[in-house]
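User: I'll paste a sequence; please echo it back and then give the predicted structure.

Assistant: Echoing your sequence first, then the prediction.
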Amino acid sequence: MRAIYGRHSTDLQNARSTADQIALLRDASRAEGITDILEFTDEAISGSAIDNRPGLRALLNAVARGEVSDVLTEALDRLSRDQENIAHIFKRLTYANVPLRTLTEGPIDRIHIGLKGTMNELFLHDLAKKTRRGLVARVKAGFSGGG
């Protein structure tokens, strides 16, 4: 059975983002003639860690139980933006002989994990710096720096 996974990072993002990803993945699967689909999601949870994402943990548990034939997600960064975690996820899928594919990158292999994993982690690091810069500017302008 195919597993599909969607996630968006924070409650500041469009709440429909995860549902839109799942709809896109469901449509792509149906276009391939696949109708047996397990859906896994995490709403408003960062991709920087695994432990705080019940949807991803449930997906990995279903893989370990042999319930999943393949995994489809919109892009690799939906699974993780952390280099160590994406390698861990890929290793668990590979060990279970479960291929991973994304709509953005296509079939995922070790090269994707190394290169995109690094790029996704750098994006998260750069985003944190830019967010901090923006908050400092708000405080200097006399506004609140946060909630």
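The longest strand covers residues 2-7. Helices lie at 17-31, 54-64, 76-79, 83-95, 110-140.
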